[in-house]
């Protein structure tokens, strides 16, 4: 199983464990799942932390 999927599942599980019920829980689980997915991609090496902070023009060069 890819690390991104593992990170996403872990974030969703933490969301369910931390807060369960209603639309707020849905948003919390979605946000933690997204964070877990990004962390998993960083661990796999598919993303670099600098990709989030570089201006768009530098990526094209």
Overview of the structural elements:
The protein is mostly helical and 61 residues long. The protein has helices at 3-18, 22-44, 56-60. The mean pLDDT is 75.
Task: State the main characteristics.
single chain, 3 helices, flat, 0% strand, 61 residues, mainly alpha
Quick recap:
This protein is mainly alpha-helical and 61 residues long.
SSE layout:
Elements: H1 3-18, H2 22-44, H3 56-60
Helix pairs in contact: 1-2
Low-confidence stretches: none
Structural shape: flat
Question: Helicity level, as a percent range?
Answer: over 70%
What is the mean predicted local confidence, pLDDT? 75
| Overall number of strands | 0
If you compute it from the alpha carbons, what radius of gyration comes out, rounded to the nearest whole angstrom? 14 Å
Order of helices and strands: HHH
End-to-end Cα distance, whole Å, is 34 Å
């Amino acid at each position: 199983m890819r690390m991104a999927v593992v990170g996403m599942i872990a974030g969703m599980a933490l969301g369910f464990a931390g807060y369960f019920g209603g639309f707020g829980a849905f948003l919390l689980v979605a946000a933690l799942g997204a964070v877990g997915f990004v962390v998993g991609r960083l661990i796999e090496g598919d993303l670099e932390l600098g990709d989030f902070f570089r201006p768009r023009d530098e990526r094209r060069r």
